[in-house]
Amino acid sequence: MSSIFPVIFILLVVLGLEVFSYILVPKGPQQTTIRTALMLTLASCYLMWMVTYMAQLHPLVAPYRTPKMEF
């Protein structure tokens, strides 16, 4: 069976990367812009991965096979 643990684990990794990106961005006039861009990029990548992962675990439509017609 599938588990929610990979989703939570990757979330914690992404949150850790966001904290590091917040701390390690050098001071300057564009510091806020760089921090925002990095955090939005990480959050968007995580959301895309999570939606794709969950869609594969729980598909909305079950696959079906059309009958093969012979001529």
Automatic annotation (TrEMBL):
In the record, biological process GO terms are:
vacuolar acidification
Task: Please provide, in alphabetical order, the Gene Ontology terms of the cellular component aspect for this entry.
Answer: endomembrane system; vacuolar proton-transporting V-type ATPase, V0 domain
Report whether Transport shows up as a keyword of the record. Answer: yes
Provide the transmembrane region boundaries: 6-25, 37-55
Q: Which UniProt keywords apply?
A: Hydrogen ion transport, Ion transport, Membrane, Transmembrane, Transmembrane helix, Transport
Tell me the membrane topology, using the record's own terms: Multi-pass membrane protein
Q: Where in the cell is it found?
A: Endomembrane system
Molecular-function GO term, any one? proton-transporting ATPase activity, rotational mechanism
Q: What Pfam families does this protein's entry cite?
A: ATP_synt_H (PF05493)
Question: Where is it predominantly found?
Answer: membrane
Task: State the family named in the UniProt similarity comment for this chain.
Answer: Belongs to the V-ATPase e1/e2 subunit family.
- What is the protein name given in its UniProt record? V-type proton ATPase subunit
- Species source reads Scleroderma citrinum Foug A
Source species taxonomy: Eukaryota, Fungi, Dikarya, Basidiomycota, Agaricomycotina
